[in-house]
Specification:
- It contains ten helices and no strands.
- With 200 residues, it is mainly α.
- Helix 2 crosses helix 5 and helix 8 packs across helix 9.
């Protein structure tokens, strides 16, 4: 009985990963130790090393994959309604994170992407970030094509959407204002409408 009680107090692997993604979105990867990641996730350091024996890079990689997959799931669901609905949902998630953290948190995928990698190679967290961006772009491009955008235009527009939203998140945090995201949202809506109308 005592064992199951102790197990219920042990944070799940997913909770540690989610906590790490949140911490990376606030402070970046290089400025964060595994001890701080564990503390932010309210997990004992021993549990963290038990789940992630390769240490910080393994945890960071899984945190980026977790964030990338969460956004991909949301996009898959919302893009069924159309590219504009998918982009609105994409923007709404980031709005919630930035506003909810009082401009302290952004996108963990972006946070990992903008840090200088070590001289001895490309860390797996950076590879995971590239894969997350590519996955989002692919989903957006498919939805644009499926809803009538010209096949040759869809990939570039998908990249523009992801890059614009990610850049706007960074600008919102710096300016402590949601105005950049609002302006980007307006422009993206117009571009999507144009891409879909242009195919008719």
């Amino acid at each position: 009985m005592a064992k199951s009680s102790a197990q219920s107090r042990t944070p799940s692997r997913e909770r540690i990963v989610a906590g790490a993604a949140d911490m990376i979105s606030r402070r970046g990867l290089n400025a964060t130790s595994i001890r701080e990641l564990a503390k932010h996730a309210k997990a004992p350091l021993g549990s963290t090393y038990h789940y992630f024996p390769e240490g910080k890079q393994q945890l960071a990689t899984e945190a980026v994959q977790y964030a990338g997959s969460a956004i991909a799931r949301l996009l898959r669901k919302e893009l069924d309604t159309g590219p504009a609905a998918g982009v609105r949902a994409f923007l709404a998630v980031w709005r919630g994170i930035v506003v909810g953290s009082d401009f302290r948190a952004g996108c963990p995928v972006l946070a990992v992407s903008v840090e200088e990698p070590p001289a001895d190679g490309i860390p797996p967290a950076l590879v995971a970030a590239a894969e997350a961006f590519e996955g989002w772009e692919k989903l957006l491009a498919e939805a644009l094509r499926d809803h009538g955008a010209a096949p040759e235009r869809a990939p570039g527009l998908a990249t523009l959407i992801v890059a614009s939203v990610e850049g706007a998140i960074a600008m919102c945090r710096a300016k402590r204002s949601m105005k950049p995201l609002d302006q980007v949202a307006q422009q993206l809506e117009a571009l999507i409408a144009d891409a879909l109308d242009g195919s008719a």
